[in-house]
Amino acid sequence: MNSMGLLQNGIAIFISVPFVVIALVFLYFGLRNKRRSAASRKWPVTGGQVLATSIDARQSTDTHGHSSISYYPVVVYEYSVNGQVYRSDRLSVEGAIGTDVGRAQTKVNSYPQGSSVSVHYNPNNPQQSGIEYRSTTGTILIAIAVFILLMLFCTMGFMSVMLASVNTMTSGMLN
Fold it and tell me: In angstroms, rounded to a whole number, what is the distance separating the alpha carbons of residues 121 and 51?
């Protein structure tokens, strides 16, 4: 391999490493969330009661100054374990995902105030609970990681083909 090829490989590695690291971080958190969700399915279940519901609107601003609002369903419920009363607003062990106001409202509507709910709680830490067990967050994070890696591999493959054709053209011109 000539020095130009070594330089091109070095640049490709230099460009790739941050994307691989970011993808691995997404993959780590995605798998962790899926593991937590799977573990919560095996937790004991107790009865609980919905105390209040609401929608939490959170505004965020990106680096370009554009703001957006995400809506989070809030369901406050109470449950007891071994005579100790606990109160929580966590729908799932994974945490909440922001969405549009319609979906948040649909979620809140499915838990009317005063209704009974099944609460999954961690037997080692009963304060950790959820009334849903899903792995949506984990699935989304894993999908993002896969997308990043696919885009990286496609880009690197395209760059490799382009550089090979430039090298072929350059060597043809020198002959």
Answer: 18
